[in-house]
Amino acid sequence: MVQFKGYTCSLCHTDYDPVAVLYTCPQCGGNLDVVLDLEKIKSKFQKEDLIVRREDSLWKYLPLLPVSDPGGEGTPFRIAGWTPLYSPPGIKKMLGLNLLWIKDEGKNPTASFKDRASSVVVARCRELRAEIVVTASTGNAGAALAGMAAAVGQKCIIFAPKNAPPAKVAQLLIYGAKVILVDGNYDSAFDLTIEASKEFGWYCRNTGYNPFTAEGKKTAAFEIWEQVITRLPESAKPLCVFVSVGDGNIISGIHKGFKDLVALGWMNKMPRLFGIQAEKSAAIANAYIADTDTITPVESTTLADSISVDLPRDGVRAVRAARETNGQYLTVTDDQIISAIAEQGRYGIFTEPAGATAYAGLKKAVELNIIQQEDPVIVVNTGNGLKDIKAAMMAVTPAPIIEPTMSSLKKHLKI
Predict the structure, then answer these.
(1) Is the CB of residue 285 less than 8 Å from the CB of residue 330?
(2) What predicted TM-score, i.e. pTM, was given to this entire model?
(3) Fewer CB in 10 Å around end: N or C, the chain?
């Protein structure tokens, strides 16, 4: 892994070599940025070398990742990433946008964006020869870890709040993970996971704690670059990327990916990153609006469980992702999130609440004239709607029940 040089703390900027630390900065507790040997990468690869690779997964970008080839051929582990883009004419017309794409992360093997981080973390876990990998999750991160671990025979344990959506808990169990439901919220499960990993020597995947999670998530930036940015004319305005935000690790990971591409000289124009939070879970948006890096905890009550976080663990980098790219944070209501589920569904796209949050944020940005007709826009749908059927049913009118007769049908159809 000649490309992996070590870590730099995102807060105090202390440097560490690859074997000195596993998680956060020992000096100040800040999140660590993985440092790649960009000069060696540039000496060995041109951007065309990656673009022509035939592997349709995040692993086509292995030269830009801090892990060695993990294997896993012929399994779901090897097909995480390289998710499709949609550009529905009806939505473009409705929003008045000429250039709009929706990147559907629900097409990942376990149906969410979190497969990206989990696959890279599992690869790192195997390099470290850890017996067990563990995480706290409201569902998606746990399902992704359980699925990716199962694919390569890695033991894993998942701590989840007892009120996690049943469909997500079912995924954890089906993949064979040891599941422990915690009588508390995500934050309490997170803290317990860290204590347990220290006590028992487990490798901890926790979002905003393990630096390799952002390295997995940055692969979405590489795909957006290849799928969209390289095909835009030089005269185009900067791409606007809309991302739902909970812990902050997805938007900070995407930011890291774009920064890597700029540092390599493979991308000239930094995209603008727009973080979208639920009003009932808006600690990072609050910090952005207050123009501070201090993240003040909130009491999160949003129905979008995947982004329901009291104390975001990657909040500082998430604030900077928008601030440093001329982006912005916006908040949306739970009602707007539910409406966004139904609206996208009418065009064949089924999202869970967290995924719909980014789309709801775009609608608000258009209404406020923050986004205009000629702005190229991509919305990241972070998870499939089947993850949370209860929320989906809130977005629609229940189907009627009729007698199995033509007269009942005609009466219902008012014929």
Answers:
(1) yes
(2) 0.95
(3) C
Please say whether the beta carbons of 262 and 270 come within 8 A: yes
Could you tell me if 155 and 131 are in contact, meaning their C-beta atoms sit under 8 angstroms apart? yes
**Domain-by-domain residue ranges, the chain?**
1-44, 76-108+214-394
Architecture of domain 76-108+214-394: 3-Layer(aba) Sandwich (3.40)
Query: Is the distance from CB of 331 to CB of 368 less than 8 angstroms?
Result: no
Pick the CATH number of 1-44 from 2.40.30, 1.10.540, 2.20.28, 3.30.450: 2.20.28
Long-range contacts of 175-180 (CB under 8 A, 24+ apart): 175/110, 175/143, 175/146, 175/147, 175/149, 175/150, 176/146, 176/150, 177/142, 177/145, 177/146, 177/149, 177/150, 179/142
Cβ count within 10 A of residue 312? 29
In whole angstroms, give the CA distance from residue 371 to residue 377. 9
Helix (H, G, I), strand (E, B) or coil at 6: strand
pLDDT per position as a tens digit, 202-246: 999 999 899 999 999 999 999 999 999 999 999 999 999 999 999
Q: Is residue 49 a contact partner of residue 22, using CB atoms and an 8 Å limit?
A: no
Q: Which of 81, 10, 53 is nearest to 315 (CA)?
A: 10
Query: Which one-letter amino acid corresponds to residue 180?
Result: I
Residue 20's pLDDT is: 86
At residue 7, the 3 state secondary structure works out as strand
Q: What is the DSSP letter of 183?
A: S
Q: Parallel, antiparallel, or unpaired for β 240-244 and 272-278?
A: parallel
Q: Identify the bridge partners of residue 332 per DSSP, sorted by sequence position.
A: 278
What single string gives the DSSP state of each residue in 315-328?
HHHHHHHHHTTT-E
